[in-house]
Amino acid sequence: MLTAGVDMQQDRLEVEVVGWGVGDESWSIAVHSLWGDPLQGEVWEDLEALLQQRWMHASGNRLPITSCCVDTGGTGGSTQAAYEWLRGKTGRRIF
User: 7 phi and psi, to 5 degrees?
Assistant: First the structure.
């Protein structure tokens, strides 16, 4: 399975996609810097697009990101911007 972690910065979102295997073994699959102001919608749209991607597994299967955690700590309104984007997404396992 794949998960994603998002760290909010003043000028971007840093995203790591992690693959998980048997016995909680894990691998860093990809790291993305999504440049943009978290107070604006565009960087959140970029995150949404990234979370909807499917990733090729060695077996040939394409895996979705099954859950995501977003670090919402910030200043100057960025925490509230993250909360607004996250609203209504818990059914999608975005926390």
Answer: -110, 120
Question: pLDDT by residue (tens digit) across 48-69?
Answer: 999 999 999 888 999 999 999 9
pTM: 0.86
Q: How far apart are alpha carbons 38 and 23 in whole angstroms?
A: 36
Nearest to 17 by CA among 56, 44, 43, 45: 56
Chain segment 79-89, per-residue pLDDT in tens: 888 888 888 77
Helix (H, G, I), strand (E, B) or coil at 44: helix
The alpha carbons of the chain give a radius of gyration, in whole angstroms, of 14
